[in-house]
Amino acid sequence: MRTPRRRLKREETYDQVDMCQKLYDALKAAKDSDGKYITDPFTRVPSRRTDVEYYNVITDPIDFARINQRLRAYEYNSFSDFCKDIELIISNAHLYYKEDSPEYLSATLLQKVYQELKTEHENPSESVETSPSPNFGEKGITSPAGIPDGTKLEHILTLILGKTDKQGRLLSPPFRVLATEDELPEYYDVVKNPIDFKTIATKIRSGRYKSWAAFDEDIQLLVNNCKLFNSSTSQLYKDAVKINTFYEEKKGEILAPKFIIDKSKIIENKRIINALLEQKESNDNSELSEDSEEDEGFEENMSNPLWLLYWEVRNLPNEKKNQPNIADPFLELPNKQHYPDYYDEISNPMSLYVINKRLKSGYYNSLQYLVDDLLLICYNARCYNMESSEFYLAACKLEKFISKKARELDPTVSINIAEVPNEEDEEMGEEEDDEEEDEEEEKPKVERKKRAHVSIAESDNNDSETSFIRPPSHKRRKKSEFTEFGSEIGKQNMVVRKHPQGRKSIEEHQHIYRNKLYRVLNTVKNYNLNGRLISEPLLFVPDPKQFPDYYAKVKKPIDLTTIEKNVETLTYKSSAEFMNDLFTLFNNVRLLYPANTEIVQHANILQENAAATMKHITKGQVIPLPKKKERSSHYKSRRSYGSPGTPSRTPGRASAAAFTSPAPESRRTVVQPQRNVAEEQAKMKEIYNSIFGFRGNDKRPLAGTFVKLPTRDEYPSYYEKIKRPIDLSKVSTKINANNYESLKDFFADLKLVFDNACLFNDPTSQIYKDALILQKEILQLRNQYLNEEICISSEVKLLLMKIFVAVSTFASNGRCLSESLDDIQRFLRKSGVSENEMPFSLDEIKYNLDKGRYRRLDRFQEDFFYLLSKIREFAPLTSDLFRDTIELQKHFIDKRDILIKDILITPGKLYSRSELEKELEIVRKRRKQKDQGVSSETMEPEVSREPASQDVDVLNNSAEASDEAMASIDFDGKAYYPEDYVYVASADDNAPPDAPKHIMRIERIFHDEEGTLVVRGIWCYKPCETYHLATRLFFPNEVFLTPFKDSVTVERLRGKCCVMFAEDYLKSNPIEFDDDNVYVCESKYLGRKQHFKKLQTWPYPEEIEKLKVEKRSEPLKVVKVKSELARDGSEMDINEEKKKARSESTQPKESEENIHESITGVVSERVKNLPRILDIHRDEVKDSKNPSNENATYYEQMLHNGTWYRRGDGVLTFREKAGHCDVFRIDKMWRNKDGEDFISGPYFARPHEVKHDINVTFFKRELIAVEQPDSVMNMNLIQARCVILTTKIYETSRPTEFAECDVFLVDRRVWGETPISDWKQCSLVGGTYEPSISSGFPLDLNDSRPIKKLKVSQI
């Protein structure tokens, strides 16, 4: 008998495990004389179904796969326990197989090899020659001197800390300092004796290691802890194995008698160990705010070139097969705790997740800014990595792709690919004569390696955390001169780097800062216009004796020479001070000379170029002078975001007095109040407790299911479908560890928990409904706690979500009515509904709701009601489905009226219960007329089909309805009844007698038209008869109910079996059936590839009452097994089956009927490709006030590029080289004879475009109407719709279909630059136009007049 399963105790030695593993590997590698592995016949025991006799003889079966599993789980307590299992395999084979069989002979050979290898492993000293190397005994390594030397311990630990893989990636960072128990509680639940390198270093320094055995035991403990917690396929597991192997190699070298450590190396080791001891557990890894919640349904943003470019870059595939996307290494920033030198080396860190968050917040107001940030990611990677590394090459490929794609989207985009700082690896310096240089030029050029940097990337394996690639520690960089990127300063300004690779001194940082200022200064000094330097008059200030008037007018005399001196001496504390001096110089010129003089024009040119160069270098940031700082100080965000508030006046700005051009309003830097961490954490806990304690209408707590996710082994399909698994316990852990930067990030994780649940579970399941209710609750709490400003789109989304949840969970007579709509699209297709008329399913409506596509209640209601009305067209009038649609629609109307009362003004409210009754009366009348004109339903003859060979029509009910049913039938000495589960032999006449049998549930017994006795029923599929992934796990005897019906002759019946619901089977055991004839059913197979629907209740409750069972003393614990597709547990075979399953699922169906099959819970492509906002259905309406002519047709309402426009709408139009879109209001729309669309209307200026005093205040998003002739433009220039409201209207109501950023207020109007000769030229003006004397001051707010009303469209 095998030893009972018991986990290896911590106090037991790990050498036993190592011996077991080594013997197992040796046995698996042994071959016979024919070159075959002797363990192959015993890799898997025979199948219980195909070889029942084996299990009658062998009471304790075991195979090498099971032994391997026990090894990986550390179940062997000793080497002898492992040997007992090997011997059990051999004895089982000798007991069952005949002496002349190949299996018996293989077992005999295995026994011989096993005995030899076992002797070698038990007595290693006898099998190897003695050597002066230290003795590796069971207690570790004993030092000749007894107590180990601390310097040697520090040396070997330092070697481990610097160990890298072949790509130069450091292995030690995850093992340096463990995460705290608050940050990773699940680790401490599994690992009872945690240890890290910092703990080992502490014990070295305190002299607690009295022997090498103690040190060796701690290293082994660290390695085995990692193996215990992580999967064997994870990168961390593999790294731990490499560390262990490396340690075993190095300890023998260090303990050699002649081994001596150099004194300089001892000092270096102490420095490294000191740094390790100073490392803290807390992890501040958020220099920049990142958002990793990437929206899979990005198709809705395809109209936005910013999102289009982001996703094109994000999903750029790798040329190599089975490799992650090229952009994957640049998704997130490196861990600052493990790699602080990255942030010393890279001054402007950037990642795709940072860009993702900026895109969501509307940070980028032009494609140029996005391109700059994307190229910054590539530049950082090239600066930090070796030229030969994969990540350097990936960055280069990404740069080329970004450049090409950006120019395709906008040819005007500037592509600035910066050069990496030059570093000459020269030991002899610059003192080389010309002859040597000439000789060197004649030699073939050798690719010069760039300085070695840490490479940052994510591991290919999903189980591993971010990997960081570092060159081997012995490849130290030589002292060499370096030049900062783009510097044009001579070599006399260079600084010699004196620090190791990856870290810059403060002098180097200051040198970089100085070079950036020099770049701007040289742009001014070296600007050449028509062959001459126009900056020469600005090099020196005038002589005070010759030009006394200069000093009388100019308060701050300055010249370029003085500015250059200040740059050289680092006088400027920031780049802003430097720019202020430059602008002061240019303003002095404008103060002394008239505006039309040449020197003033030159000053304007120089100022514009200086500002542009500085903006390009600094990315719009202010660069401070680098100063020495404490290592523990953290980077602060260089840019803060102000949240929108209610309409309130904010100070204006005098544009004439400013030295720099005013930035667009969307990119202004707003100073945020200091974050109150304790207050935010308290709010998070309050919200979490609210969700955790939330109860449904039945007083049942809903959050319990979402506290802890199942493991990957229990539900591998979940982790394949869900890209970012998270549960409430992980959210709680992140709260306690203070890992959330803001409440928004916290709400994003909470929402993700329930989004994942809705994505994975069937809509009819209770988990789905609970997640739906909690989603609505989270949305409500989010609006409550993030209430800086009432966000109309969020409020509308919450309102619609409440209606959707109320209808989806509405129950009557103990039954949830929405379950009737499950897979309704398939029913409609069977009924003849075309794809063009196909309504959205509930899943698709929910998808649109989650994406924020519904901005209007009437459109949401229209989609919902259209689904119900379409079902009523085809469902039988007396069916439950017909009645359910009526009840659901009534409940929708009632809930809608309650929620929108005194809140929402909508035409959707016009549809009431009375309208529904009128519609139902029409439907019933039409259906009755149709039924009267159609003869009784005819049945089609059905062809008998094998369950595993092809799909059977779900709705086919065969043709036996006219035959008389029988109560039972006797065949082969057994009686069969309806509702029995029976074995059915294969219909293939050539099938062997022992061929696998099918399972059917009998529903009817009758004689067919030919008089043959047949039984009809539904098939129950075995796993091998379904399409599924090889990673799916099954109960040992699992089957699946199906909707597929068939008729078979009685001669094919082969006995009875029992099929039980999984929950009942775990609690009770059927008395009348053997275990081999009892099958478990947990899900329903719907006949589509890889689609299973989990059963919530057993559909045949009467069976449970009739079945004789006995209660189990305690619920049965069943371990699910792998699919038969997972051959021999081979990971390669599993991957091949995954690919095969995926390729099969993507193959086109032969039947036209199946082409449009959709899987419940999976959103179709037509829904993914919908526009970002779903508008109501409209028609083009011609303008009666502007008659059409042969050249143009005028419209009140018109469709252009998929968007509807009406007279009175505001539009945002593109203007080249502007930081924002121009705002116009449509007064006229027309289409010319060539099919081109145009609009005309008034222009609205932004505050910074008009002249005003500095103390003038503005509303947020306020515009100023400009009285000038209406502008005419092509509608292709329109970027988006917006709404322009007067303050009086905005205070009472506003349209819900526009985002907050697209709602503008207008309170005043000013004169335009072009005077109006006729009032008809400007649609802002009503009545007869009378010119005013104030019209001579265009765009001047001092001459503004109020606006009381804007014309609106009558549509």
- Secondary structural class: alpha+beta
Which whole number gives the mean pLDDT? 75
Level of helix content?
A: 25-40%
Strand content: 5-15%
Low-confidence stretches: 1-14, 125-145, 282-287, 296-300, 423-503, 630-672, 935-962, 1128-1161
Please report the total strand number as a whole number.
38
| Count of runs of 4 or more consecutive helical residues | 40
**Shape, principal axes of CA atoms:** flat
The largest sheet has its strands arranged as 16-17-18-20-23-21
CA gyration radius, whole angstroms: 39 Å
Instruction: Sketch the major β-sheet.
Output: 6 strands, mixed, barrel
Distance between the termini: 86 Å
Quick overview of this protein structure:
The protein has 1355 residues and is α+β, with helices and mostly antiparallel strands.
Which secondary structure elements does this structure contain, and how are they paired or packed?
Blueprint lengths: L14 H15 L22 H6 L6 H9 L6 H18 L5 H21 L1 H4 L8 E2 L2 E2 L8 H12 L11 H4 L8 H6 L6 H9 L6 H18 L5 H20 L8 H16 L26 H10 L25 H6 L6 H9 L6 H18 L5 H20 L12 E2 L10 H9 L12 E3 L9 E3 L11 E3 L11 E2 L9 H20 L2 E2 L2 E2 L14 H6 L6 H9 L6 H18 L5 H21 L31 E2 L25 H16 L23 H6 L6 H9 L6 H18 L5 H20 L6 H17 L2 E2 L2 E2 L7 H7 L11 H9 L6 H18 L5 H21 L12 H20 L32 E2 L2 E3 L2 E3 L4 E4 L13 E10 L5 E9 L11 E2 L3 E12 L3 E9 H6 E3 L7 E8 L6 E3 L6 H6 L2 E3 L9 E2 L8 H15 L19 H4 L12 E2 L9 E9 L2 E4 L3 E4 L8 E4 L2 E5 L4 E9 L11 E2 L3 E13 L3 E9 H4 L12 E9 L33 E2 L9
Parallel strand pairs: 20-23, 21-23, 35-37, 36-37
Antiparallel strand pairs: 1-2, 3-6, 4-5, 6-7, 8-9, 10-34, 11-12, 13-17, 14-15, 16-17, 16-21, 17-18, 18-20, 19-26, 22-25, 23-24, 27-28, 28-29, 28-32, 30-31, 30-36, 31-33, 32-33, 33-35, 37-38
Helix pairs in contact: 1-5, 4-5, 7-10, 7-12, 7-13, 11-12, 14-16, 14-18, 17-18, 20-22, 20-24, 23-24, 25-27, 28-29, 29-30, 30-32, 30-34, 33-34
